[in-house]
Protein backbone atom coordinates (compact mmCIF):
# COMPACT_ATOMS: atom_id res chain seq x y z
CA UNK A 1 0.00 0.00 0.00
CA UNK A 2 1.45 3.42 0.87
CA UNK A 3 1.81 4.78 -2.64
CA UNK A 4 -1.26 2.92 -3.90
CA UNK A 5 -3.75 4.33 -1.36
CA UNK A 6 -2.20 7.79 -1.27
CA UNK A 7 -4.72 10.60 -1.97
CA UNK A 8 -2.28 12.03 -4.54
CA UNK A 9 -2.34 8.73 -6.45
CA UNK A 10 -6.14 8.49 -6.27
CA UNK A 11 -6.52 12.05 -7.57
CA UNK A 12 -4.06 11.29 -10.38
CA UNK A 13 -6.15 8.27 -11.43
CA UNK A 14 -9.30 10.39 -11.61
CA UNK A 15 -7.56 13.06 -13.68
CA UNK A 16 -5.96 10.59 -16.03
CA UNK A 17 -9.11 8.52 -16.59
CA UNK A 18 -10.85 11.21 -18.64
CA UNK A 19 -7.80 11.44 -20.91
CA UNK A 20 -7.26 7.71 -21.30
CA UNK A 21 -10.98 7.20 -21.95
CA UNK A 22 -10.84 9.77 -24.73
CA UNK A 23 -7.76 8.12 -26.19
CA UNK A 24 -9.19 4.58 -26.14
CA UNK A 25 -12.65 5.47 -27.44
CA UNK A 26 -11.31 7.85 -30.09
CA UNK A 27 -9.10 5.09 -31.50
CA UNK A 28 -11.89 2.52 -31.27
CA UNK A 29 -14.31 4.75 -33.24
CA UNK A 30 -11.81 6.23 -35.68
CA UNK A 31 -12.88 3.98 -38.56
CA UNK A 32 -16.44 3.19 -37.56
CA UNK A 33 -18.64 4.78 -34.89
CA UNK A 34 -21.35 2.23 -33.93
CA UNK A 35 -24.91 3.56 -34.18
CA UNK A 36 -25.75 2.21 -30.73
CA UNK A 37 -23.13 4.50 -29.22
CA UNK A 38 -24.36 7.53 -31.13
CA UNK A 39 -27.80 7.16 -29.55
CA UNK A 40 -26.58 7.23 -25.95
CA UNK A 41 -28.13 10.03 -23.95
CA UNK A 42 -25.81 12.29 -21.98
CA UNK A 43 -26.11 11.18 -18.35
CA UNK A 44 -23.16 13.00 -16.82
CA UNK A 45 -25.17 16.04 -15.71
CA UNK A 46 -27.12 14.08 -13.08
CA UNK A 47 -24.10 13.92 -10.82
CA UNK A 48 -21.38 16.53 -10.66
CA UNK A 49 -18.31 14.65 -11.87
CA UNK A 50 -15.12 15.61 -10.08
CA UNK A 51 -13.07 16.40 -13.19
CA UNK A 52 -13.70 18.83 -16.07
CA UNK A 53 -13.76 17.51 -19.61
CA UNK A 54 -10.19 17.75 -21.05
CA UNK A 55 -10.89 20.10 -23.97
CA UNK A 56 -7.25 20.59 -24.98
CA UNK A 57 -6.54 16.87 -24.99
CA UNK A 58 -9.73 16.29 -27.00
CA UNK A 59 -8.66 18.86 -29.60
CA UNK A 60 -5.19 17.33 -29.78
CA UNK A 61 -6.61 13.86 -30.48
CA UNK A 62 -9.45 14.76 -32.84
CA UNK A 63 -8.51 18.13 -34.34
CA UNK A 64 -10.15 21.55 -33.85
CA UNK A 65 -13.00 20.84 -36.26
CA UNK A 66 -14.94 18.65 -33.84
CA UNK A 67 -17.60 20.29 -31.63
CA UNK A 68 -19.60 19.61 -28.48
CA UNK A 69 -22.25 17.73 -30.48
CA UNK A 70 -19.65 15.14 -31.37
CA UNK A 71 -21.04 11.75 -30.26
CA UNK A 72 -17.55 10.89 -28.99
CA UNK A 73 -17.87 13.62 -26.33
CA UNK A 74 -21.21 12.23 -25.19
CA UNK A 75 -19.88 8.67 -25.18
CA UNK A 76 -16.89 9.64 -23.06
CA UNK A 77 -19.04 11.65 -20.63
CA UNK A 78 -21.49 8.78 -20.22
CA UNK A 79 -18.89 6.09 -19.57
CA UNK A 80 -16.86 8.34 -17.29
CA UNK A 81 -19.94 9.15 -15.18
CA UNK A 82 -20.95 5.50 -14.91
CA UNK A 83 -17.55 4.57 -13.46
CA UNK A 84 -16.73 7.65 -11.40
CA UNK A 85 -20.12 9.00 -10.31
CA UNK A 86 -23.26 6.89 -10.56
CA UNK A 87 -22.14 3.80 -8.69
CA UNK A 88 -20.60 6.02 -6.01
CA UNK A 89 -23.80 7.97 -5.46
CA UNK A 90 -22.06 11.20 -6.37
CA UNK A 91 -19.24 10.59 -3.90
CA UNK A 92 -15.85 11.95 -4.94
CA UNK A 93 -13.82 8.98 -6.29
CA UNK A 94 -10.88 10.04 -4.12
CA UNK A 95 -13.05 9.71 -1.01
CA UNK A 96 -14.19 6.30 -2.24
CA UNK A 97 -10.62 5.20 -1.55
CA UNK A 98 -8.32 2.60 -3.08
CA UNK A 99 -11.02 -0.08 -3.00
CA UNK A 100 -12.87 1.70 -5.80
CA UNK A 101 -9.69 1.87 -7.90
CA UNK A 102 -8.81 -1.78 -7.27
CA UNK A 103 -12.36 -2.97 -8.00
CA UNK A 104 -12.56 -1.16 -11.34
CA UNK A 105 -9.06 -2.29 -12.29
CA UNK A 106 -10.17 -5.88 -11.74
CA UNK A 107 -13.34 -5.35 -13.77
CA UNK A 108 -15.88 -4.67 -11.03
CA UNK A 109 -17.69 -1.36 -11.52
CA UNK A 110 -19.89 -0.08 -8.68
CA UNK A 111 -23.52 -1.07 -9.42
CA UNK A 112 -26.04 1.48 -10.60
CA UNK A 113 -29.04 1.64 -12.90
CA UNK A 114 -26.90 3.29 -15.57
CA UNK A 115 -24.37 0.45 -15.40
CA UNK A 116 -26.71 -1.54 -17.66
CA UNK A 117 -25.36 0.50 -20.58
CA UNK A 118 -21.98 -1.16 -20.04
CA UNK A 119 -23.28 -4.53 -18.87
CA UNK A 120 -25.24 -4.94 -22.11
CA UNK A 121 -22.35 -3.84 -24.32
CA UNK A 122 -19.26 -5.98 -23.71
CA UNK A 123 -17.16 -4.10 -26.25
CA UNK A 124 -17.79 -0.74 -24.57
CA UNK A 125 -17.27 -2.27 -21.14
CA UNK A 126 -13.87 -3.72 -22.09
CA UNK A 127 -12.76 -0.45 -23.67
CA UNK A 128 -13.78 1.42 -20.51
CA UNK A 129 -11.85 -1.00 -18.28
CA UNK A 130 -8.82 -0.75 -20.54
CA UNK A 131 -8.91 3.04 -20.27
CA UNK A 132 -9.16 2.83 -16.48
CA UNK A 133 -6.18 0.50 -16.27
CA UNK A 134 -4.20 2.88 -18.44
CA UNK A 135 -5.18 5.67 -16.05
CA UNK A 136 -3.82 3.68 -13.13
CA UNK A 137 -0.47 3.22 -14.86
CA UNK A 138 -0.29 6.92 -15.76
CA UNK A 139 -1.12 7.84 -12.16
CA UNK A 140 1.78 5.70 -10.91
CA UNK A 141 4.08 7.42 -13.38
CA UNK A 142 2.88 10.84 -12.29
CA UNK A 143 3.42 10.35 -8.56
CA UNK A 144 6.77 8.59 -8.99
CA UNK A 145 8.34 10.36 -11.97
CA UNK A 146 6.17 13.37 -12.77
CA UNK A 147 3.49 14.43 -15.22
CA UNK A 148 3.98 14.14 -18.96
CA UNK A 149 5.16 17.49 -20.21
CA UNK A 150 3.28 17.56 -23.52
CA UNK A 151 0.32 15.92 -25.28
CA UNK A 152 2.78 14.23 -27.62
CA UNK A 153 4.60 12.61 -24.70
CA UNK A 154 1.30 11.48 -23.18
CA UNK A 155 0.12 9.99 -26.46
CA UNK A 156 3.43 8.20 -26.91
CA UNK A 157 3.08 6.70 -23.43
CA UNK A 158 -0.46 5.51 -24.19
CA UNK A 159 0.59 3.96 -27.49
CA UNK A 160 3.32 2.08 -25.63
CA UNK A 161 0.75 0.84 -23.11
CA UNK A 162 -1.41 -0.30 -26.00
CA UNK A 163 1.35 -2.26 -27.72
CA UNK A 164 3.81 -3.36 -25.04
CA UNK A 165 1.80 -3.79 -21.84
CA UNK A 166 -0.86 -6.07 -20.42
CA UNK A 167 -2.75 -4.57 -17.49
CA UNK A 168 -5.25 -6.70 -15.61
CA UNK A 169 -5.86 -9.28 -12.92
CA UNK A 170 -3.45 -12.19 -12.47
CA UNK A 171 -5.79 -14.73 -14.02
CA UNK A 172 -5.70 -17.03 -17.02
CA UNK A 173 -5.24 -14.13 -19.41
CA UNK A 174 -2.24 -12.94 -17.38
CA UNK A 175 -0.69 -16.40 -17.75
CA UNK A 176 -1.36 -16.40 -21.49
CA UNK A 177 0.28 -13.00 -21.89
CA UNK A 178 3.28 -14.19 -19.91
CA UNK A 179 3.66 -17.27 -22.13
CA UNK A 180 3.28 -15.01 -25.18
CA UNK A 181 6.26 -13.00 -23.84
CA UNK A 182 4.43 -9.71 -23.47
CA UNK A 183 7.16 -7.17 -22.65
CA UNK A 184 5.40 -5.77 -19.57
CA UNK A 185 2.69 -7.01 -17.21
CA UNK A 186 0.96 -5.02 -14.47
CA UNK A 187 -1.66 -6.08 -11.94
CA UNK A 188 -3.37 -4.51 -8.94
CA UNK A 189 -4.79 -6.62 -6.11
CA UNK A 190 -5.73 -6.50 -2.45
CA UNK A 191 -5.38 -9.07 0.34
CA UNK A 192 -6.08 -8.41 4.01
CA UNK A 193 -6.55 -4.68 3.26
CA UNK A 194 -3.05 -4.50 1.77
CA UNK A 195 -2.95 -3.26 -1.83
CA UNK A 196 -0.24 -4.61 -4.10
CA UNK A 197 0.83 -3.50 -7.57
CA UNK A 198 2.76 -6.23 -9.35
CA UNK A 199 4.89 -5.30 -12.38
CA UNK A 200 6.82 -7.80 -14.49
CA UNK A 201 9.23 -6.85 -17.27
CA UNK A 202 10.53 -9.28 -19.86
CA UNK A 203 14.32 -9.29 -19.93
CA UNK A 204 17.21 -11.53 -20.87
CA UNK A 205 18.71 -13.44 -17.97
CA UNK A 206 22.39 -14.17 -18.29
CA UNK A 207 23.55 -17.58 -17.11
CA UNK A 208 26.99 -19.12 -16.96
CA UNK A 209 27.66 -22.50 -18.57
CA UNK A 210 30.93 -24.29 -17.81
CA UNK A 211 32.54 -27.66 -18.29
CA UNK A 212 35.24 -29.28 -16.20
CA UNK A 213 38.17 -31.17 -17.61
CA UNK A 214 38.01 -34.89 -16.89
CA UNK A 215 41.69 -34.78 -15.89
CA UNK A 216 41.03 -31.96 -13.42
CA UNK A 217 38.19 -33.87 -11.77
CA UNK A 218 40.24 -37.07 -11.50
CA UNK A 219 43.14 -35.04 -10.13
CA UNK A 220 40.95 -33.58 -7.38
CA UNK A 221 39.64 -37.00 -6.49
CA UNK A 222 43.18 -38.37 -6.38
CA UNK A 223 44.19 -35.56 -4.03
CA UNK A 224 41.16 -36.37 -1.92
CA UNK A 225 42.30 -40.00 -1.66
CA UNK A 226 45.79 -38.88 -0.65
CA UNK A 227 44.50 -36.47 1.97
CA UNK A 228 41.99 -38.76 3.62
CA UNK A 229 43.46 -42.24 3.21
CA UNK A 230 47.20 -41.61 3.45
CA UNK A 231 47.63 -38.32 5.29
CA UNK A 232 44.43 -39.10 7.26
CA UNK A 233 43.38 -35.47 7.52
CA UNK A 234 39.75 -35.39 8.67
CA UNK A 235 39.69 -31.71 9.58
CA UNK A 236 36.33 -30.11 8.71
CA UNK A 237 38.22 -27.22 7.14
CA UNK A 238 40.76 -29.31 5.25
CA UNK A 239 42.19 -27.95 2.02
CA UNK A 240 40.41 -30.30 -0.37
CA UNK A 241 36.97 -28.98 0.47
CA UNK A 242 37.82 -25.30 0.13
CA UNK A 243 35.96 -23.53 -2.67
CA UNK A 244 37.69 -22.69 -5.93
CA UNK A 245 36.10 -20.35 -8.47
CA UNK A 246 37.40 -22.08 -11.58
CA UNK A 247 37.64 -25.74 -10.58
CA UNK A 248 34.48 -25.85 -8.44
CA UNK A 249 36.59 -27.82 -5.99
CA UNK A 250 34.00 -28.01 -3.24
CA UNK A 251 31.29 -29.44 -5.48
CA UNK A 252 33.68 -31.73 -7.34
CA UNK A 253 35.07 -33.16 -4.10
CA UNK A 254 31.63 -33.86 -2.70
CA UNK A 255 30.63 -35.63 -5.91
CA UNK A 256 33.30 -38.28 -5.43
CA UNK A 257 32.16 -41.81 -4.70
CA UNK A 258 31.35 -42.43 -1.01
CA UNK A 259 32.83 -42.72 1.52
CA UNK A 260 35.29 -40.07 0.32
CA UNK A 261 32.65 -37.85 -1.26
CA UNK A 262 29.32 -36.74 0.13
CA UNK A 263 26.38 -39.03 -0.43
CA UNK A 264 23.81 -36.94 -2.28
CA UNK A 265 20.90 -39.36 -2.08
CA UNK A 266 20.23 -42.77 -0.70
CA UNK A 267 17.39 -44.98 -1.83
CA UNK A 268 16.41 -48.05 0.11
CA UNK A 269 14.44 -50.52 -1.95
CA UNK A 270 12.29 -52.91 0.08
CA UNK A 271 13.03 -56.54 -0.69
CA UNK A 272 10.61 -59.35 -0.14
CA UNK A 273 11.27 -63.06 -0.27
CA UNK A 274 8.59 -65.30 -1.72
CA UNK A 275 9.01 -68.98 -0.84
CA UNK A 276 9.02 -71.17 -3.90
CA UNK A 277 7.31 -74.53 -3.78
CA UNK A 278 8.64 -77.35 -5.86
CA UNK A 279 6.40 -78.32 -8.70
CA UNK A 280 6.23 -81.57 -10.59
CA UNK A 281 5.58 -82.04 -14.27
- What's the total number of strands? 3
User: Helicity, in percent?
Assistant: 40-55%
Order of helices and strands: HHHHHHHHHEHEEHH
Biggest β-sheet: strands ordered side by side in the sheet:
1-2-3
Compact overview of the structure:
With 281 residues, the chain is mostly helical. The chain is built from twelve helices and three strands. It has a three-stranded mixed sheet, sandwiched between helices.
Layout of helices and strands:
Blueprint lengths: L6 H22 L6 H4 L16 H8 L8 H14 L8 H4 L1 H8 L10 H4 L2 H23 L6 H14 E3 L4 H8 L4 E8 L2 E8 L12 H17 L18 H6 L27
Parallel strand pairs: 1-2
Antiparallel strand pairs: 2-3
Would you kindly provide a written description of the structure presented here, covering whatever features stand out?
Helices cover 47% and strands 7% of the residues. The chain is mainly α. The protein is elongated, with a radius of gyration of 32 Å.
Which characteristics define this entry?
mainly alpha, 12 helices
Amino acid sequence: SGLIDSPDTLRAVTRAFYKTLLFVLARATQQDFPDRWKSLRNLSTTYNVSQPFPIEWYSFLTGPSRDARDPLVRLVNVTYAIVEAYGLGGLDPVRAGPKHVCDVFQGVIAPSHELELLSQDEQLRQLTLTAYRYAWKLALDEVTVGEYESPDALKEALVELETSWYLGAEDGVWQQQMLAEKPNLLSLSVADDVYTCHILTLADQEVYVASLSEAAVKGLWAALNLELLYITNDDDERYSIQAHGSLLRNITTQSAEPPLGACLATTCLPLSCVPMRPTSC
